Amino acid sequence: LDNKVLNLERVQALETWLKTTNTKLTQVNGQRKYGGPPEVWDGPTPGARCEVFISQIPRDAYEDLLIPLFSSVGPLWEFRLMMNFSGQNRGFAYAKYSSSGVAADAIRLLHGHMLEPGFRLSVHRSTEKRHLCIEDLPASTRQEDLLQVLRVLAEGVERVSLKAGAGIEGVSAIVAFSSHHTASMAKKMLVEAFKKQFALTVSIKWQSSVNSSADEPLPPQKSSVSLLASSLRPLRHILSSPPASALPPRLACHPSIPPGFCRAVGGPAVSPHTPYSPTFSSEGGHLVSAAAPVMLLQKVCEATGVGQPLYEMYCSHAGPDGYLYFIYKVRIPGITVPFKGLVMILPGPTPTNTLEEARQAAAQQVLQRVHRNQLSH
């Protein structure tokens, strides 16, 4: 099978299986996920060594073949299939079970299993690393500032610890993530994000060992709704002037925060060129958007009486990396100046989904501008 040709019969078989079994999948940033946990789950939450790594998967094999196979060993807490732009899988997946014993059974029973003629699955224990080391940060970096910046740029950031000393240029940071997947996604995009957002060149590598003192949990983060509710002044006042392109004077003069981080906490929280990571869910066998920024912005506007946001979306061009670039204008009736910007997203399963992703990305940028402008007052 040509790696660029989609097997429509296999795709249809997946759609039929989703409908008949009422199985729900979510698609996020290059992977499709089942569970984590499933809707019905009465077992324990998986701990260490409960996940297996599956490779040598035929490119046109999907969850309708893989989930029943790996569920035959024991109930799946989560199954993640890595996907490419064409709609085929990338040849590998992760399955997580309730215990390390069941994961060991999956390796013993399914390693070498012939899923299709000529394709024997490779099943091994997953490494599940979830700590990254970010090197070459400015010497004046503060832990709380870096934590705030990372939580804007990446998902699943739990805590940060800084280290400096002989042989270390500037400051290095050990960042703990909620899962191996969120750490892996951050590793792929943070170097470019720091370069585009802050004009900083950093290096990022896996951190194999972590001191227990650096792994102590921080207080839980507030949800987006409670954060906005507690920090926003009346929305009409905050948004009555255009978003500032320069640093707020108070933050610009703060000597202890690096200039790049000043921009992060004082200006728009996400660069126009930082990809939006949309979320999809499957309902009735079809993938539909499940992200919430549009709904959140609507509720904030309702609460402050400024009227419902109106979206104008224009697809500008497709980049060589597969991302689509959308120019947006968001008008809020009670606000004089519309919000304008550029977002980049991966194509959705349908044109309708793609447009909805772009709206969600635009709403997310508007919310972040509102919040960051509020912090500067």
UniProtKB/TrEMBL annotation:
<dbReference type="Pfam" id="PF00076">
    <property type="entry name" value="RRM_1"/>
</dbReference>
<dbReference type="Pfam" id="PF14709">
    <property type="entry name" value="DND1_DSRM"/>
</dbReference>
<keyword id="KW-0694">RNA-binding</keyword>
<protein>
    <submittedName>
        <fullName>DND microRNA-mediated repression inhibitor 1</fullName>
    </submittedName>
</protein>
<dbReference type="InterPro" id="IPR000504">
    <property type="entry name" value="RRM_dom"/>
</dbReference>
<feature type="domain" description="RRM">
    <location>
        <begin position="50"/>
        <end position="128"/>
    </location>
</feature>
<feature type="domain" description="DRBM">
    <location>
        <begin position="292"/>
        <end position="372"/>
    </location>
</feature>
<dbReference type="InterPro" id="IPR014720">
    <property type="entry name" value="dsRBD_dom"/>
</dbReference>
<dbReference type="InterPro" id="IPR035979">
    <property type="entry name" value="RBD_domain_sf"/>
</dbReference>
<dbReference type="InterPro" id="IPR012677">
    <property type="entry name" value="Nucleotide-bd_a/b_plait_sf"/>
</dbReference>
<dbReference type="GO" id="GO:0003723">
    <property type="term" value="F:RNA binding"/>
</dbReference>
